[in-house]
Every structure is written in C-alpha cells, then in structure tokens.
Automatic annotation (TrEMBL):
<dbReference type="Pfam" id="PF08281">
    <property type="entry name" value="Sigma70_r4_2"/>
</dbReference>
<feature type="domain" description="RNA polymerase sigma factor 70 region 4 type 2">
    <location>
        <begin position="9"/>
        <end position="59"/>
    </location>
</feature>
<dbReference type="InterPro" id="IPR013324">
    <property type="entry name" value="RNA_pol_sigma_r3/r4-like"/>
</dbReference>
<dbReference type="InterPro" id="IPR013249">
    <property type="entry name" value="RNA_pol_sigma70_r4_t2"/>
</dbReference>
<comment type="similarity">
    <text>Belongs to the sigma-70 factor family. ECF subfamily.</text>
</comment>
<keyword id="KW-0731">Sigma factor</keyword>
<keyword id="KW-0805">Transcription regulation</keyword>
<dbReference type="InterPro" id="IPR036388">
    <property type="entry name" value="WH-like_DNA-bd_sf"/>
</dbReference>
<keyword id="KW-0238">DNA-binding</keyword>
<protein>
    <submittedName>
        <fullName>Sigma-70 family RNA polymerase sigma factor</fullName>
    </submittedName>
</protein>
<keyword id="KW-0804">Transcription</keyword>
Length: 68
C-alpha cells in the first residue's frame, strides 16, 4: 500500500511540472539521452537543458522529497 502511495505522489509531482521540464527530465532519465542530445532534439542549448533539469529535479524533490 505504501509503495503505491509513493508512486502516486511521484507521478502527480511529475505531471505538475511545466511541460518543457517534464519532457527534459523524461528524455534524460527515461530515454538515457545526454544533455547534448536533448538540446539537439529540443532545438535549444545545453545550458537551457541543464537549467530545466535542475529546476525540474528541485521541484520534484520539494514536492515529494519530504513524503518519501
């Protein structure tokens, strides 16, 4: 039961992220792409990709970090 509630909390937090942060996190963590590959795919710079990763990760940790 506890695993399902944690999974649900993480999924809710991911869905609440801005679309570009969510997509960036998915490409890096689920597809295993590098920042360079993500930048080329999303037609942006590596610095923007890193910023989105940082902000998205920070938001996720703030949203579910205390509950896990």
């Amino acid at each position: 039961m506890q695993v399902n509630s944690c999974r649900s909390a993480v999924l809710d937090a991911v869905e609440a992220l801005p679309a570009l942060e969510r997509e960036t996190l998915a490409l890096v963590f689920y597809r295993g792409m590098s920042c360079d590959e993500v930048a080329a795919t999303m037609k942006t710079t590596v610095d923007v990709v890193r910023d989105r990763l940082h902000e998205g990760s920070r938001t996720l940790l703030a949203g579910v970090g205390g509950g896990l």
